[in-house]
Design goal:
It contains 10 helices and 7 strands. By secondary structure, the protein is an alpha/beta fold. The strands form 2 sheets. The protein has a 5-stranded parallel sheet, sandwiched between helices. Strands 4-5 form a two-stranded antiparallel ribbon. The radius of gyration is 17 Å and the shape is globular.
Length: 237
């Protein structure tokens, strides 16, 4: 599935049985902007899963008819490869580890502020074409995003970017090898670590390429786009 083209405004599948939480999440997501389809249970989510090429899955960890990780496995079995975020009111570290191990790329803890939710959604959603610079590409580095993530300290940005660039060749090799070997889990694990690092250092173009590959981990075209984005980062450094 291609989650980067098609619709100017991405569509999110939200699975949430509490009407108040669902209303809040829908309203916040509309500010991204994004469209939201709401399912109140596992069975409802599976029923509508094939109706759209979803850009993101936002799934409650505890549903009336099952667990979030069970639903995610069922959606993956149906070919839905969009990045998935879990949301939960529980804060136990063991639950977070279990959700991440089951394939979620992030776990959001409720109650969740609008700013935090928007930051999470924008981190994992594809960027609409209208939001790109006139050249058609995101900048290699987004200094504003990096400074916001690192308390406005330029020295922190410089230091972390140095570490980030130093790690990139090894990450490139591991992702490429895992992709060629068809190791879906290894690719996802490496991409999960890389997308978080991109957010901290403001690696905007590479972050977009990572999110695209998260949606299609074994797609050779996504891997090629990732390689090009890594080249851009290394070249700029």
């Amino acid at each position: 599935m291609n989650h980067l083209s098609a619709t100017p405004i991405p569509t999110i599948l939200l699975v949430e049985d509490d009407p108040v939480s669902a209303s809040f999440l829908c309203e916040a997501a509309s500010l991204v902007p994004a469209r939201v389809d709401v399912a109140v249970s596992m069975s409802a989510a599976l029923e509508i899963a094939g109706s759209h090429d979803y850009a993101l899955l936002l799934i409650d960890a505890h549903l009336p008819d099952g667990q979030g990780e069970t639903l995610l496995r069922a959606l993956r079995d149906r070919g839905l490869e969009a990045p998935a975020l879990a949301h939960t009111a529980a804060r136990e570290p063991a639950l977070t580890r279990k959700l991440l191990a089951s394939g979620f790329i992030d776990v959001l803890c409720k109650p969740l502020g609008v700013a935090d939710l928007l930051q999470a959604l924008r981190r994992h959603l594809p960027v609409p074409a209208a939001d790109l610079p006139s050249g058609g590409k995101l900048p290699v580095w987004d200094d504003g995003a990096a400074l916001a993530a690192l308390d406005g300290k330029q020295s922190n940005v410089k230091a972390l970017r140095g570490l980030f660039v130093g790690e990139l060749p090894g990450q490139r090799h591991r992702i490429s090898a895992a992709s060629v070997n068809g190791d879906h889990a290894k690719v996802r694990d490496e991409l999960h670590r890389l997308v978080a690092s991109c957010g901290f250092v403001g690696a905007a173009r590479l972050g977009q390429a990572v999110r695209a590959m998260q949606a299609a981990p074994l797609d050779p075209h996504a891997l090629q786009a990732l390689q090009f984005a890594i080249d851009d980062v290394l070249g700029s450094a």
